[in-house]
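Hi support team,

I submitted a single chain yesterday and got back a structure, but I'm not sure I'm reading the token output correctly. Could someone confirm the output below corresponds to the sequence I sent? I've pasted both exactly as they appear in my results page.

Thanks,
R.
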Amino acid sequence: MATLTVPAVVPPVAEDCEQLHKAFEGWGTNEKLIISVLAHRDAAHRRAIRRAYAEAYGKELLRALGDEIHGKFERAVILWTLEPAERDAVLANEEAKKWHPGGRALVEIACTRTPAQLFAARQAYHDRFKRSLEEDVAAHVTGDFRKLLVPLVSAYRYDGPEVNISLAHSEAKILHEKIHKKGYSDEEIIRILTTRSKAQLLATFNSYKDQFDHPINKDLKADPKDEFLATLRAIIRCFICPDRYFEKILRLALGGMGTDEDDLTRVIATRAEFDLKLIKEAYQKRNSVPLERAVAKDTTRDYEDILLALLGAE
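Hi R., thanks for writing in. Yes, this is the structure output for that exact sequence:
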């Protein structure tokens, strides 16, 4: 499901470090050499490169990159080079500090990662920022969004396949009752969405559809301009069909009058090692255009090259 392409025989870490150092030498930076190394190494290799580079040259690789490259290309390379948990911590911190109701990074991190991955992101957050993720979310997010997002990012859900069908039926009724009464921020809705396992939630959403003849998200479209309802829908979509959720993020990022580089970079950098192939398939099916072609149309130069490399383009 990943799009990341790694050589059949990966060069020694020392050789990769030497190539990167070579890319930084001289009057100009060799961006293509940076891409040829970092965009074709998995998380374990990138971690080893960072450690070995600091030992060999006395400078942290991320700092060296930041000194040599800039703008959206720098953003993509730095995010990609970070370890997945560290990357999630950085993205979560950025969104928490600049919170706005349309933000989706916190929802994605809380709902599309496994419980172990979310726990690792919270640990990385603590190590990097000397505060807890939930502390910062509580400090910067207000109102109903705070009621929802603090427990969402704090969750450590059961990750197994077991499902309680009778509980799914009863909680589907609870959700329907609260939504019908427009109690969208009711503590019962928040409790169910922020504590139940993915398998249990899927059973509950299926029961909702069976009992009330339409998907739960249809009832949450009562006011399309309500960002709290949009956030609830995003949470549910992340659990039901993450590939289609991310496809929509990419479609909106690449559509319209301008390109949303933040969303585009975030999705590609966070999903390239996991399920970007499925997201690409969903994009092609929905838009009748390969994602690579859409990215190439809306981006240029080194930024285009790093994104296409992570998409697995030949």
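A quick pointer for reading it: Residues 84-154 form a domain with the Annexin V; domain 1 fold (CATH 1.10.220.10). Let us know if anything else looks off.

Best,
Support desk
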